Amino acid sequence: MDINQVRYFLNLAETLNFTEAARRSRVSQPSLTRAIQRLEEQLGSPLIYRDGKDSRLTALGRDVQAEFMRIELALRNVREHSESTVLGRRRILDIAVAPTIGPARFTAFFFDVLGQLPSVKINMHQLLSGESADEVLSGKYHACILPGMPRPNPKLNVVPLFRERFLLACAKDHPLAGNDVITTEALATYPYVDRLACEFHSQITEHLMDHDAVMQPRFSAEREDWVQQIVAEGRAICIMPEHSAVVQGLVTRPIQGMSLERELVFVTVSGSGTPREVRRIAQMAARHDWT
């Protein structure tokens, strides 16, 4: 097995088309086909069902794709590390964060990271809808910050960071802002804006309905900044994680009887193939005082 076979198969697994995979690999189609056939002979089983235009990976093919993606990531890390060492370049780390997680608890941590790792440059991304820890395994991101534990996977290193409650959010001059604790009866008397991106949307709705508070929002949004701006202007109230505010003028209050909370985690790929700098950041995250 050679590195070219890894690259050829990953292109084929992504396109499921020998012609397009050969074009991406910059080889002729017969050359790519022979390389895939040799790989299947070495592994002793087909990797792709060849059924005209309906080609698809076999179960082994899907497993091999996942492992080859890790190999490709490790090779890329080796190249980047070599360039950083020989040419004095900075290592660029791509870290993604879930859209419902606010920056307030993280800015000091990441600038501490930059201070201790002068060769690192960090690019922060927002996780797209449907993305998860799988994007770390695929190599799209070096790490991600999630609003809950991912599915158990021995290939992932998961560092718990801190827990945060779900609270009522309202404008600082809103009538509810003067209360220490908000009853569900009081919630139902004010306009409510719905956070469509909330991971606990169904649990919040269930809690309110159990307490005879049926909220009927006339405005909903996936973007947190839109929701928070509406709330900060006093036009409506919402329920949000206590540290996720990004708009000035918001206050939060606990809701009577509501004990929902989430645990934020820092996720990387486990093992020696992970860049040294990423492993260092994970260690720093585990030691950081998040309070």
TrEMBL record:
Task: Please name the Pfam families in this protein's record.
Answer: HTH_1 (PF00126), LysR_substrate (PF03466)
Question: Which CDD domains has this protein been placed in?
Answer: PBP2_LTTR_substrate
Per the record, the coiled-coil ranges are none
Q: Report the domain of life of the source organism.
A: Bacteria
Molecular function in Gene Ontology: DNA binding; DNA-binding transcription factor activity
Q: Where is the HTH lysR-type domain?
A: 1-58
Q: Which UniProt keywords apply?
A: DNA-binding, Transcription, Transcription regulation
Q: Name one GO cellular component term.
A: protein-DNA complex
- Signal peptide from the UniProt entry: none
| Keyword DNA-binding (UniProt) | yes
- Family as reported in the entry's similarity comment: Belongs to the LysR transcriptional regulatory family.
The name this protein carries in UniProt is LysR family transcriptional regulator
Protein species of origin: Phyllobacterium sophorae
